[in-house]
Amino acid sequence: MQPKDRRVTIADVARSAQVSVAAVSKVLRNATGVSDAMRTKVRAAMEELNYRPHAAARGMRGRTYTIGIVLDSIRNPFFADILDGVDAELAGTDYQVLIGAGGFGADGQAKLADALVDRQMDGLIMIAPGMSKDDVVRTAASVPTVVVGHHDPAPEYDSVVDDDLAGAALVVDHLVGQGHRSIAHTTTRGTRGTKWRATPDKVRARGFRQAMSGHGLGEDPMIAVTGFSLEGGYQAGRDLLTRSDRPTAIFAGADVAALGVFQAAFELGIRIPEDLSLVGYDNTAIAGLTPVRLTSVDQSGHAMGVSAARLLVERIEGRAEPVRTVSAPRLVVRHTTTAPSHVRANGGRTPSR
């Protein structure tokens, strides 16, 4: 038995398992050449002694088995889906995840990334980073990094993205198919001066414009630029729904923004879907709740998290060439979209223009 006030060491584990310290070290590092019997014996001893690897000591040996995740806010429910995927992929490994919310400013996120690197994270997953691309590249040059969301590739990091052009087209095609012609889109301002040219919001907005143009509706599409947040969606909803030519449908660039549009419509006495069709993006758990039943684009955040974790571990293990994975979106139709009132009044037929 070890004294309760003394931390269990790797030597204690080796003694209990009746193996060498080197063998225990190989198990901790998931090194090759370790038999299943040896691995089982060592892990049983670790569990019996309640052994926890000392992160600082492991860092001195070149590995801490900790992964840092950088995001702007914990309030976006889509990020929870990504984190679930990361946890699922790392389950059963020695890796632990530390999550940091750096705010929506570039400087705050860059400071957070630096802090995680200083604390010897083995790798970083950056979810739609608002910090500059130069800072991301600089960070990725010093620690393995995966960027989720942004379509701008670079040799220093891996990318996990959704086909946002196709996702936006799915929304427009669905709404036009129901008879809508006056369709608006909500997007985000993003962070200026960060040199990202193809963030998810920019690609979705481009996809919206292209799809509208393809249907002959692209002369002057309504786009409200606020933010992918509850507050941003609310402001976009107020702006769009108080116009004299208010739209009959709104495509919100994120589910969290769609909830803000919901709130604005409720306050203005506008019924969804009778007076306004509404579509979100991300298909978060909230979208499927019975009181909401939001039509939304599913980009499989869980699968994106799984891919991000897998790619990061590969990077940590030594792969140097960049990898990019692209998920295929699908539209999940629920209660918040229907034909506009003038089409319903015409027996479901769109009046000639």
Largest sheet: 6 strands, parallel
- Counting DSSP H or I runs of 4 or more residues, the number of helices is 13
CATH topology of the largest domain: Rossmann fold
Compute the number of strand runs. 12
Beta-strand percent range: 15-25%
Portion of residues in helices?
40-55%
Give me the strand/helix succession.
Answer: HHHHEHEHEHEEHEHEHEHEEHEEH
Instruction: Give the distance, in angstroms, between the N- and C-terminal Cα atoms.
Output: 85 Å
What top-tier CATH class of the largest domain fits best? Alpha Beta
What is the residue-mean pLDDT, rounded to a whole number? 90
CATH-derived architecture of the largest domain: 3-Layer(aba) Sandwich
* Rg on CA atoms, Å: 25 Å
Low-confidence stretches: none
| CATH homologous superfamily heading of the largest domain | Response regulator
The coarse overall form would be elongated
Topology summary:
Blueprint: H1 10-17, H2 21-28, H3 36-49, H4 55-60, E1 66-71, H5 77-90, E2 96-101, H6 106-118, E3 123-127, H7 133-142, E4 145-148, E5 158-162, H8 164-177, E6 183-188, H9 200-214, E7 222-226, H10 230-241, E8 249-252, H11 255-267, E9 277-281, E10 295-298, H12 301-316, E11 324-327, E12 330-332, H13 341-345
Parallel strand pairs: 1-2, 1-3, 3-4, 4-5, 5-11, 6-7, 6-8, 8-9, 9-10
Antiparallel strand pairs: 10-12
Written overview of the protein:
With 353 residues, the protein is an alpha/beta fold. It has three domains: 43 residues, 434 Repressor (Amino-terminal Domain) (Orthogonal Bundle), CATH 1.10.260; 123 residues, Rossmann fold (3-Layer(aba) Sandwich), CATH 3.40.50.2300; 151 residues, Rossmann fold (3-Layer(aba) Sandwich). It has a six-stranded parallel sheet, sandwiched between helices. Strands 7-6-8-9-10-12 form a six-stranded mixed sheet, with helices on both faces. Helix 10 packs across helix 11. The protein is elongated, with a radius of gyration of 25 Å. The mean pLDDT is 90.
